Amino acid sequence: MLKLILVFTLFSVSFFVQSNKISVKVLTQERQRVGNVVVYLTPKASKVSAISNKIEIMDQVNTQFSPHILAVQKDTQVRFPNSDSIKHHVYSFSQAKTFELQLYKELQADPLLFSNTGAVELGCNIHDWMLGYIFVVDTPYFGKTDSEGNLTLELPDGDYQLDVWHPRIQDKFSVLSRPLSLPATSDIEIVLSSPLLPDVNQYEDISGEFSDYE
What we know:
The protein has 214 residues and is mainly beta.
């Protein structure tokens, strides 16, 4: 009977672990929204468990990478389909992942495993204007800001390190990083001190200079 009560107590404690909803907003110094920013929170107390059998998609559509920025957790597999009717030759020489894939519409390439954290810049040997990014994080708590520069996440109680990443941000990412304790914090605003780098590929598809541009 005592053992049954103990099991029920442990189950009750784990079942009622507090979940916190936090809101993150990323803005320029002029208070303009910044979309497509990767926001990720790394727990300080416990080691993050690796995931398995997770496959994300980085497609090629209208001779562009889709999405333009893909955020994934470490040890995720990424598949590279080709939705165009023409050949692509996708490559990366990034430190986090180096690879080359010749992609035909009729050929389905095997997914690639991304096991190192950091930014993986993608290009196409055939179409020089194609540019995309895969950003690998070592935490399950991450996402991208929407066209209004907002992101909402749910996390359990605890201490975290909040970081952001985007290829157009000129601020040092270490300066933008901040500690975060839950449940004390709920609304976070990150204001960039430097202007964004020019968007040479003009991915914006919503009115507004800093709209989400996938």
